[in-house]
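Example A, followed by Example B.
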Amino acid sequence: MMVFELKETVTHEQVGWSVGHFCTTRLRISRKMLVSIKHHGDILRNGQHVNVNESVDLDDEIHVSFPEEHPAEDMIATQGELDILFEDEWLLIVNKPPGMASIPSRLHPERSLANFVLGYYKQRQIPYAIHIVNRLDRDTSGLVIFAKHALAHHQLSKMQQNGLLDRRYVALIEGELGPQTIDLPIGQTDHSFMERMVREDGQRAVTHILKSTAVEAFMRTISQLEIKLETGRTHQIRVHLAALGHPLVGDTMYRGTPLIPRQALHSASAQFPHPGTGEMVMFEAPLPSDLFIEQ
């Protein structure tokens, strides 16, 4: 089975480094992953097997073969169409429709976005497990990032932790609400496993409203918001807007008016350094028709 591979050449400033240090620094492989490569993958220096404690010299070629990846044995591969926005050997960017879960659950094990991605992988003999980077609620539409393999997932997770993964959303609310930063902790309610609320003992949650445009729609004033997430708590945007008295249109869990049959929230874009090249990339998912209002 094909495995993911990396090849890099040693430069002047890296002469004398150990192979292990070259892998963790130049190739950005985690120490935990390096241990797995030692036991289940391979590292070559100029075509010869090498120990991670050995040193590298100028123009040495280091070739890393990563361990094979296998999806969870009980995960169902579902065949169907995917709206793919971008794909390369590191990333799969998909536009998720509303009404579809991001990952399977015990009661719904086979028609989540992750199931369809696994079906796509199997159909095209892509030998990787499922690494979802940003999950969306079932009724939230838009851009979802899948890392193709463990190294890409590790690097994207570090970007999230360091604030380098810039995700933007479009939301519709009733009334008018200007640009601002919402910094309110979020925790689980006492009466529901699913529902969240602003509470003092919750986890810190920060939402930035970047733009707000008020229009007349549904025979009332509706504001279209552009939102940037700084943290990624469950239902964060929904809870924060409800706490300010402006729940999402359609979000009946948080007392939104059911003007449309789902919460009016769309994952519109993501910008981040590409995990393979380091170059800044940006991906966008077009606004679906049920959230489009003329301005």
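Example B, a separate protein, is given below in the same form.
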Amino acid sequence: MKTSYHIKNINGVDIFYREAGNKENPTLLLLHGYPTSSHMFRNLINYLADDFHLIAPDYPGYGRTEQPPMSGFAYTFENFSNLMKTLLDELNIKKFSLYLMDYGAPIGFRIASRNPERIDTLIVQNGCAYEEGLETFWDPIKAYWKDRNNKEAENTLRGFHDPNGLKWQYTHSVPDPTVISPDNWEIDLRHLERLENDAIQLAMFYDYQTNVTLYPEWQEYFRKHQPEMLIVYGKDDYIFPGSGAEAFKKDVKNLEFHLFPTGHFALESFGDEISALIKDFLKRKTAKK
């Protein structure tokens, strides 16, 4: 079940996505985080492709998806979510599971909470739906929300996606940094160095506050619909720490919970263990009755 690579025009934007597996099998939509792309799922896709249908898109301005000029395109989580939902519709995917990581969480929680009947399962890896998960890392971002002209906060945010900041995101709190391939941040730099991309990243940081506003709505979705959920978190992540994972326990009853002693990009250091958990979970929860 080899991975194939596609581009599909969605609402006027050429969306790049990876696809693998038999389309007759249960579908898993893999939603990547900041500041990466569908590249983060390359190994997981290979592991799951024999049993599941995988779709892993890049968002506009990330990876190999088109980067429309900011003057005519809204770089917002709402817009990204609408694009991902339309991609599913265009691919005629009716029911699906979601892998939600970092930025992928608010994009996917919008889809899930608005289309609960279409959701098979949710897999959450270092993605937030509770304010408990927004700790020290978020202080300069919150300052930026209060004042978009705050240059000190802006410079701090820029540092998260410069070469040193990228390497830090992949290696911080990782037990053995030597297992983390430098290809990760080098590939990310490809899209981050495009003209206007820095402004896009700042726009996304500023827009993240719209996700926090929706947290109560998503929590109500959890309580009302009780989706089958798998948590596979790097507990020592400075960006989305383990406290954010623990918060899901307040509302989600159908929860399988696993923390790993690593940082933000947990698949890079515990990919085998997480992949095995996901395969087992999906086989049990999405098997045809």
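On Example B: The first helix runs from residue 42 to 48.
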